[in-house]
Design brief:
The structure is a homotetramer of 418-residue chains. Chain A has 418 residues and is α+β, with helices and mostly antiparallel strands. The first copy, chain A, is built from 25 helices and 9 strands. In chain A, the strands form 3 sheets. Chain A has a 4-stranded mixed β-sheet. In chain A, strands 5-9-6 form a 3-stranded antiparallel β-sheet. In chain A, a hairpin with a 3-residue loop joins strand 1 and strand 2. Chains in contact: A-B, A-C, A-D, B-C, B-D, C-D.
């Protein structure tokens, strides 16, 4: 009999189960040695030095939590899912431990300031997480020494290539442990009321049908609540213009850094932790050394560089002199602002940024595709997509008339001169 | 100078301000002697014996709170509104004390089990509240002895006939103190997560414009949140089929009682507290004696009457043998159930009830009309109705495809026989 | 093999498990047919018409919850205890179902306004609960038809005579499901912060040792927190002088009623629901008909009696004209007040009440005796009583200097005349 | 007329008042330009990179908040105090703005990892805060350009030398805005229940008497609750052995660093940000550049140094290989462990740490002294120290029998070898 079949979770139970106090789930329960080892790996501990919300804490000041606690939270939600009767029946012990690992590790590929960093350095965090799991790293070693096929089985869940779709859905789908934890956690930490929803009820209505996770009709309103919590958190918190302003500033710094490097500018600062990124040969080792502390250190150093732009942007970042923003009314307005910027000596490549967020809530609900559909199981055993069972989700999906939110971001000095 | 103009709130300040602990607002603050007297009037104290949610506590068992605490809560929300700069400027001291009184007293006309009772006895609770304020009662005396025109001024706020529209809006409109308190309170007491919204933010964006209350654009998402909280509370809590089942049972009892009375049935029970209602000459005095305790007493007595139907229904009510329910599929089905009922000896007038709740969230948002529109003030000083500023509210309003929820309610004995 | 040994919980599992929303425990889980039947018995449903906190809602106005929801809560805490490894091992399936029933039913013997009623009618609610379980009643029939010895086994838990001490401790001891639920619930409902403590942590440190429940040393601080929560709830909420005032008023009414009855006063009111109590032959049937609604009905009726005292006291009760109170300074003061009362025509037997609450927190911690000691298990496997492991509990126990809180309660009219 | 007397708060009101969402106080309100400028100073923004709880987030993982949000919170509590009638009367507008500034700035002298850092570098954070305010810095300039005496007036509040004692008490005393914010915040963020208390009630019972802040007797139980919250937070959270272990590790690194520097070890790493500290000539400028990011950078660098001890300790720190701990039983045990350490090649100066926390709750209540006494004002206008009015505080103070908690901290490798 193969290991996958003979493996029993109780064989790796900790002598004394661990519990970790958590503001969201009350306690995180750790029952198995493998999980405990992973929590203590250096890749996981590094996530303590990466904020969950990038620049959001510049506007929701108490939302300073890290990806580390979020990762523990996602693992805990998966654990609760695994306690339901339907998943107990559907999943082997080996599948269960694999999905716990995937939940815990799904974010280890996040760079500092997550999305801003990703935007400049062209490597998605999912790919990076997979690379960390499959190649040389502490977590790889822990998984591989447990069972040689395990790194691959865990990575397939994160990559959406695992044959058992239920495992993928648990970690990454329209209604997954990742989103459930972050909505609850980000809402609690930021002190907003928007992210509340009834997770217990959603989990109680979860069923397995045709080899995938579906939800009983009695759960529809709890799911609507979750969809709306998501919609509101996006607009109130994640897309807040001050957050965007902070992230644009970050990207301008990275862009200037890269441009200078490519132009053979001579840095006073020793860039060694950044070199792998500037030269595009990132190893797991070099990636693991890059956290927000290191980046803050460099920004501090950059305030002493001779290049005015790098120096100025870094100083703005450290001391929160964020760009101002306004609604962009027309192309002419943009041109006018650029002229003023030029006149004042600001390089528009780094100092004038526009972006556009379309108020399209269904985008948050997701593109079409099997995995992206929340399916509802009615009393007659029929499956239907959520919008057929929810007037409110359907109304949102069919709505056409969304205004776009186009904004321009620029230094206060330019604003004052206008 | 008329009293209304010369009156100053500080002249009626309590020597020592009262604070009342409250689970929702932390504290209810009572600053003025007039308010303290009203709180202690017998009409207000009677509301302690009327549940806020009628039959809802039969399904959300911890939602056992009374209209008394809700009334204190509405008053407290009005007090917070009055602390805002814009209302301080817009309202005279006399207007302020009037609207505080209206908030406190708006529900004194509620009969036992509120809506069920109203359905059978044809007097709206608003009309009854107005009657209690304008005619002989303790609250009338308290108001009139303060200032002879006051009963009328307070009643006009509740009746929507007051010349100062802001006062009406505060107590009764699409976004009023009444709804704000009950969504927060019913949600907290029932243990659901649906009713949360950010009241502080809504109050901070309140402005007066063209003589009415409007909201700054920066408050739109908090208002969306409130609209959706309302939508969910309606469907998850207020329209829960078990609640409806309980209320149908109540109405069947009242209906049977009335039919027997009109048919000159000889009651063993002395009906004196119910006579004014059975004979349609309700006085303030007789109304005030009718609370849920009295009704429970009568239902206990009815379990000893000879009439089988009254006896049986009352016993079901006291011991929570509620009617079962199912989705009604067709007219044929209804006929079939009625036949079975007849066969088993159940009188369909009292034992077979159908109702229909249309899933039309915009109805909760309200019919058109000036008062019923939430208006948004943009940065240019322009007013627009909420749906023009909110994609999600607009989507809901434009949606056409709502399924109706038609249900049939009947005794378990019939269900088992089908 | 005897039934007790062969019985398996899974044999009585509900086809579809029931969950009930609850503000304190999120959900109450009902897994077994027997429990569901008991919840729906008329004795349990009657508890919906008995308030958990007697007169406390006269001062903490939002604390209007019933003994019914509290009973569900105690059952739910027992259910959580039963999920711990140590109790799973220690208890047979039959013991488990018995203790669930005892938790649910422990309060069915409570009369209206609980303690005030008990004070006048000389039957403890525990004895009455036992009588309801052992003799003719719906709950008796449900238990007996499940297994003929069950009423007795459940009653023994409530009576503290069951041979298995663990079962008694779960329901009624220094640290039991009853107190855990009521501290959390009363605190939540009253909106105070005093009753919070970390139940999860306490349950996690629970162990069985020498046939009784003890707690690991790592739980000491959570238990200290619970002891202090208890201490504060007693002084802030349960012993609040306004609560005591309300209860004294109630007792005066009951006392006047009894005195009149014994003096052969001719009542206008038909007393039939009260007769069993006035004549001291209470049956289960008559007890079950007596709830707070009935008592409120009688108080309403009493406001129309000729006896001035009964009429006046009842009217004060319904309209919350509570007695005032002050610190009692001396015997002379008491005499003086009595003279004034006499002069004004108030009968001191009903209108002048004194009481004395000693500020002795250790009394709440309990008298000595095996069951009343919380025992702590240290890492070496030694047991010690809590005070040896907790400086703060020890300090409280050794403290001698407690002032007593002697108060006098009397009508406002007397106060004004002083 | 001097500036201090003529100054009016309304003269510096922001055109549009700022509100900042906060998880603890709902909103932080900023009404005045001066406060807004200070919030945006680089000294305040630096506090975003200093964790509030040092190493506590290694055991209460979700407690990752910074001194920045705590400082905003302390300011907000002071603002609420200033809204009370008694402080409005007692304080001039100038005093009010001074105490707001002091509340906001009281922590700007905190070094990275607060207490561990302080322990090694011998400068208290209060002294450093004062230095930042009095000498060259952005906050100094903002204050001085507002009014030349202001830096001194604000510093005197923090130094406890201000003539107006009420101002000192608000920011730093037994019952101050600092402790109120941190108990509530640390409790919320760590997910524990211990730190709750009723701040509203305490503030409502605050009075000024004899030129100092005292509390009405009706606030005693809320204050007891606060004292006990403090006691529990200390033992459950702040003195948790894992927190102490983390801090010992930090101190060992700093100690090794200093020893190497004094021994003229040649560092590979460029130490420039640390030099001012190693050479004891800290300027405001150099202090301001030192935050936790910089220290993390250095620890990362130290993992590449040749010195085994510095390298090893830094790696343990980054990857959370904390020292284990056990109760220290005897001097012999300590000697034995040191021998084993020596045998295994661990230098006991850095690898064997003992500490001792005495369980003396009254120490947390504070040493004697006028400022350190919470005084209670009774109905007769008499002042008494809290312990005379609180049995529980008195019991704690008179208790003699506290066990000490002496622990030894050492690497897992040594533990395994024992």
């Amino acid at each position: 009999m193969e290991f996958k079949e003979s493996f029993r979770l109780k064989d790796i139970e900790l002598h004394e189960k661990r519990v970790i106090r958590d503001a969201i789930h009350d306690y995180i329960h750790i029952h198995h040695t493998l999980i405990w080892k992973l929590v203590n790996s250096k890749e996981m501990q590094r996530l303590r030095r990466i904020k969950q919300l990038g620049g959001t804490y510049q506007v929701f000041h108490s939302a300073e939590h890290s990806r580390f606690v979020h990762s523990l939270g996602v693992y805990q939600v998966v654990l609760r899912m695994l306690e339901t009767e339907c998943l107990q029946e559907a999943l082997s012990d080996y599948d269960q431990i694999c999905v716990m690992c995937a939940a815990l590790l799904h974010d280890i590929g996040h760079g500092p300031f997550s999305h801003s960093f990703e935007g400049v350095f062209h490597e998605s965090h999912e790919d990076m997480s997979v690379k960390m799991i499959l190649q040389e790293s502490e977590v790889h070693d822990i998984l591989a020494s447990f069972y040689y096929k395990m790194p691959n089985d865990v990575a397939m869940i994160i990559q959406h290539t695992h044959p058992h779709q239920v495992l993928i859905q648990m970690v990454s789908s329209q209604l997954d442990a990742d989103r459930m934890d972050y909505l609850l956690r980000d809402s609690y930490m930021s002190g907003t009321t928007y992210g509340h929803f009834d997770m217990s009820r959603i989990l109680r209505t979860m069923r397995i049908c045709d080899g995938k996770i579906v939800y009983k009709e009695s759960g529809v309103q709890a799911i609507e609540n979750y969809i709306l919590a998501r919609y509101h958190m996006y607009w109130q918190v994640y897309y807040h213009p001050t957050t965007r302003s902070y992230e644009h500033l970050l990207q301008s710094i990275f862009k200037r850094l890269k441009d200078l490097y490519n132009d053979a500018y001579v840095f006073q600062t020793d860039l060694h932790y950044l070199l792998p990124f500037l030269e595009n040969h990132i190893t797991n080792e070099s990636f693991n050394e890059l956290d927000e502390s290191i980046v803050f250190y460099y920004f501090r150093e950059f305030t002493k560089e001779k290049d005015f732009i790098l120096k100025d942007l870094s100083s703005r970042f450290l001391n929160r002199r964020l760009f101002k923003y306004k609604q962009l009314e027309s192309e002419e307005e943009l041109q006018h602002i650029k002229e003023v910027a030029h006149h004042l000596g600001y390089d528009e490549r780094y100092y004038i940024i526009t972006d556009s967020q379309q108020q399209v809530p269904y985008l948050h609900y997701g593109q079409s595709g099997e995995l992206n559909e929340i399916e509802i199981l009615d009393n007659q055993g029929q499956l239907s997509p959520l919008p057929q069972k929810s007037e409110i989700v359907s109304a949102i999906l069919n709505s056409k008339q969304f205004k776009s939110d186009q904004k321009i971001f620029y230094p206060k000095e330019i604003k004052d001169a206008l």
